[in-house]
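Sample entry (277 residues):
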Amino acid sequence: MGSMLQVTCIALVFSILTGQSSDCMEIIGGHDVKAYSKPYMVSIQANNQHVCGGTLIQTKWVLTAANCGQLIKKKKATVVLGARSLQKKDNIEQIISVKRLSPYPEFKNKIENDIMLLELAQAADVKKKGVEILKLPTSTKDLKAGVICRIIGWGQTSPRDKKQSDTLKEATISVIDRKTCNSKKYYNGTPVITDNMICAGDKKGRKDSCLGDAGGPLMCKVKTLSRKEVIAGIASAGSDCAIARHPGIYTRLTEKYLTWIKKTIGVVNFNETYEQI
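Predicted structure, serialized as tokens:
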């Protein structure tokens, strides 16, 4: 997620899994979230180590980034829900095995179409404290430049400290116009920020997300009848982290993605909860 090329991201995550060092930071310029205040947040783990973030959107389905599939494929893949601490376990957490990976059919190991669904081996118990479903938006209207959003995730908070954060962090960023992000002063077309993506960050590079934050939700303030903040995107990839004029790139929840999600998980209305057997 944040600002890092997909190949670099995968290499860096593997370096963490194998105990090698990495200079890539994760939620940068952020702070701890209030305990259990993000009950939809999921820690996706490979061999019991956090590698990506995700969002619980139905009792048996987690929404994340397709690039995360390469980090958990052929490994013991699990999700941890309701985590206050990744190290200190309590009776709130639910640990569930991943049954199936369902990347978007047109995903080609790049940042375009970087979206995936994880089917869980059993349904999450949303009646317990600390675990809730996050309803997906019903509107796919594009976000205007300047809209305030939040990034959420676990991971390093300083390039000098290789240890991942034990607690969930969040930081506030803002949407940046695509034309600006594609300009010579920004990404210069490498990569091209398409209509399927959201470019968002801090103008001075003080706040960003990276490495293990991939797959986590981009929560943005929009005007709706039901809530002021909705999930608008999914953390994807870019190049490097916390660099001015190289903001984070996020998969935008467009109509085609929402239609695909409904078809895959078998729902008609995101406002309803379906517990599949």
